[in-house]
TrEMBL record, chain A:
GO terms for cellular component: cytoplasm. PROSITE patterns: BAR, DH_2, SH3. May act as a guanine nucleotide exchange factor (GEF). The gene is ARHGEF37. This is Rho guanine nucleotide exchange factor 37. Residues 1-10 have a biased composition (Basic and acidic residues). It comes from Macaca mulatta. Residues 254-455 form the BAR domain.
From TrEMBL, chain B:
Residues 227-240 have a biased composition (Basic and acidic residues). It comes from Papio anubis. GO terms for cellular component: actin cytoskeleton; cytoplasm. Residues 9-232 form the BAR domain. Keywords: Cell cycle, Cell division, Coiled coil, Cytoplasm, Cytoskeleton, Septation. It is found in: Cytoplasm, Cytoskeleton. This is Bridging integrator 3.
Amino acid sequence: MAKHGADELSCRSGSLDGEGRASEDRSLLRQRLAVQELIDTEVSYLHMLQLCASDIRSRLQQLPQGDLDVLFSNIDDIIKVNSRFLHDLQETASKKEEQVRLVGNLFLEFQEELEQVYKVYCASYDQALLLVDTYRKEPELQRHIQGIIEAVVPQAGSSGLSFLLVIPLQRITRYPLLLQKILENTVPDASAYPVLQRAVSALQDVNTNINEYKMRKEVASKYTKVEQLTLRERLARINTHTLSKKTTRLSQLLKQEAGLIPRTEDKEFDDLEERFQWVSLCVTELKNNVAAYLDNLQTFLCFRPHEYSLDIPEGPAVQYCNLARDLQLEAFLTFKQRLEGLVWQPLCSLAKALLGPQNLIKKRLDKLLDFERLEEKLLEVGSVTYQEEAARHTYQALNSLLVAELPQFNQLVVQWLGQILRTFVTLQRDLAKQVLQRAEGSMAQLPHHHVPEPAFRKLVEDALGRTSNQLRSFQETFEKVLPPPTTQPLLPGSERQAQALLSRYGPGKLYQATSNISGTGTLDLTLPRGQIVALLQNKDTKGNSSRWLVDTGGHRGYVPAGKLQLYHVVPSAEELRRQVGLNKDPRCLTPEPSPAPAPSIPTVNQVIAVYPFVARSSHEVSLQAGQPVTILEAQDKKGNPEWSLVEVNGQRGYVPSGFLARAQSPVLWGWNLPS
Amino acid sequence: MSWIPFKIGQPKKQIVPKTVERDFEREYGKLQQLEEQTRKLQKDMKKSTDADLAMSKSAVKISLDLLSNPLCEQDQDLLSMVTALDTAMKRMDAFNQEKVNQIQKTVIEPLKKFGSVFPSLNMAVKRREQALQDYRRLQAKVEKYEEKEKTGPVLAKLHQAREELRPVREDFEAKNRQLLEEMPRFYGSRLDYFQPSFESLIRAQVVYYSEMHKIFGDLTQQLDQPGHSDEQRERENEAKLSELRALSIVADD
């Protein structure tokens, strides 16, 4: 095609005369040629791209998709952009005079898109190359790839894939050169000239930006990785190189601290960093606080007081149990889940996102120290080594990267935090709404639901006061259940003493000491536990009713009343007395015998003598313990129930009633007690 | 056969009829269960209210820490939002404290009081048991003498034993009767006793959550875009995360 155009032009130029015009014509010709070259190369470029993207890529199906993505990157986007570009470019061909200007304008139009689409491709080109290298190491795979490429693009030669993949890079860097060529052959006062100029610088900018972008990406990916190194790995990393780096940086820092060398003040960066630190703090604190909140919520949900219903089958207790259970299963569970998904998860993501910038900022500071030292060296020496130049450049790249992206980062994080907080508020409201609905439902079924709150509180207070009194009365009732009476063993010889006392005072007056009594005063008695005494007076001379005057049979004195227990005496004697219904003075010592004991016995009771009794007069009769007797009369002639007329062993006489007892079980007659 | 060693302690005949014993066991058993439940309920209620208070406190801390961050000074919108949040949290904490106090007064205290009767009850039951043991022992003693040859001293001892037995038996029967009467009454008293507590508990929830609904409802109106579903919110979060990840300074993983 190019030849065709050239033929036309040479015919035309032949018709013009004059040297000036000739050179002008030559320029014009060259210009036209340059423009044509642009278009033609664009055509073949696009054609090659399409071959790569469709034919070659589709035949490389045995490679994993991830590899293909790395190799070919966003070649499809490039094809789209360049197709449109070519189309518009070809349209300019119809507008002869305007063409150059239109071409310039076209480049300016497409500047942004070209930058966007090529920078991505260029940034991943290195990785693609690495991948190609690994393929080269596998001969089988390499042969296969070569075969495919040779079939489709014979001119690729032995370099194969790398030849193909570099094409877009070559193209984008060529645009400025192509434009430059057109510009050179354009008359400065042509209308197209300024446009072309701008186009040239625009495409140069595009290339610069693409490089910058690529470098930032490299630097970022090198330093953002938060490496999880073990201590051993970290130690292994230390070698002379890293040590010297670190010591140099440290000395630089120290020099700065000491004021020996000026610190590079970068207010803009410092402000940015400060803001970043606040943002970090905000995220970290919020995350920790929400974690604590969730923990407490979890604890709250694991207690289930509603499971202990106290066996109350109906009423508010049941209402409460149902309410609490439902709330835990629904309202609170939903709340917890939503909180975890919509508040906690985002906060975790945010916290993770902080790590990259934090690392970069640290690295930047390290590199800054290197940079400053190198600046010094540059001033002193005038030049730096290649590596030092690279180090300077790294710092600058890091710095510019952070300055470019931190503001946006900070803003995004703050916006997101705001969103999270708003969500938190809404979740609280939703929880309250759910709980309230359910709780109001329960409340409507309560007996006092119509009573307003203050009045209800008073009601409850009163009710509780009443019932606590009731409880107290229960408690007292239970406390009244006393320990069982301890039956005191009778001391040796006390049986006789007990009888003596009994006969003198009667059964109702006998008491037994429940514990050892030690008398303190002159009139106080000292008694062992179990001692039987008879009560004389149940208060002392001063009227103190806790001090009783008692008779031990031998001595009289005072003992504390609390240590005495009523001595259980034969109740049947009491029964007998009750039956008789008389309550005369028991201090009668001798019976009044009736002149003629008539056998006026209403009942023949089977009675035995409990204690031995020695008759002291002819009216009395002796008893032996256990002896069966027959009661003839339950009182003496004077009606004194203390004495009973009995017949024993064929003899009759009076005996103390208290010495008798009813037989509980059949008694053998005719036994003899040893006396 | 006086040379056969006679074990004193277990009477031969059943002195307490089986039905009586069974009734007693049943009533006492119910009360023992009630004691356990009362104790557990009290403990759990206390722990639950403690956790509730802790939750409220950590909510207050959220807004407090936010407020103290220098970011708020610079950003007016953020400041107004965090201030509003802080006010809301503090008010809710106050209401929560009130709720817990009410629960303490009307539920936990009464539970404690109810529980304090049980030691007396248990002591009373122990004493009845003691009386029963004494009764048994003395009954056995009487039976022992009853089986012996009826000599004079034996008869005397028998009589004495019977005299000792009588008061003890009566004491036991009195205790038994008293407890059999009082225990069901006490058990039944729980119905009337606790209903006010549970009513109060439900009402306290209603009061608190009404306030919470109002306060956070107002706050939501003020701050949030209402009506967003959870899926929408999730998508918003995803979008924000992608925006962040698009930055080179953010590590991709």
